[in-house]
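[Q] Does anyone have a clean structure-token version of this?
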Amino acid sequence: MSDLFSLEGTTAVVTGARRGIGFAMALGLARAGADIIGVSASQTTSGSEIEDAVTAAGRSFTGIACDFGDPAAVDALGTDLAARRIDVLVNNAGTIERAPADVHPLDAWDRVVQINLSSPFRLTRAVAPQMIERGRGKIIFTASLLSFQGGINVPGYTAAKSGIAGLTKALANEWAAKGVNVNAIAPGYIATDNTEALRADSARSSAILDRIPAGRWGEASDLAGATVFLASRASDYVSGITLPVDGGWLGR
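[A] Here you go.
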């Protein structure tokens, strides 16, 4: 049974791997046996904390810097990765901008949609052909609770993450029969930089905690198991889903 979750002999790309959820995803994949290519805007080629963690788990690490707000940079990354064997692609890099919709800056909207939706599609489009040719591959997107809900003061983020849920289904419909599984993970309220403002607001934080059946904010490490599952043979007949990891939030 444990072989179902083994990633021995595979290479996984994780975007946004330098910190937070991406760090936990990359480390979880490494502990399951995958070599890691970690990509972030400020990722160093050597000496990073994520590299140390992956190599301590006994796997190799390759660091690549890429500005996901720059389409040309994303396309160059796609060309690079297309020349390597990639078994698992985790599209996790993202950003958020908070402002009421009626005054939400248009440049903030454009940047959020570019980083959270357009760049993951561009990168997936570059990497998927090799998976299709081999008849096997795993693609995982990081969605959000706002793939299901509207949120407050984050119109660009909600639009992008709703788009990720739809894109996951669209790509799964095209590629499932070709051996490529496309799925997404929707993290709940996780204690990361993106939720720092919410956690600092005592009233908002209390309201959030009151709705989470688990009774706590999630930790980035809570995402590791779901990532390994969707990257492994254990999920070979799972396609087109957005899996919430939210402490029960959506069940309330």
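[Q] Thanks! Anything notable?
[A] Residues 106-134 form the longest helix (29 residues).
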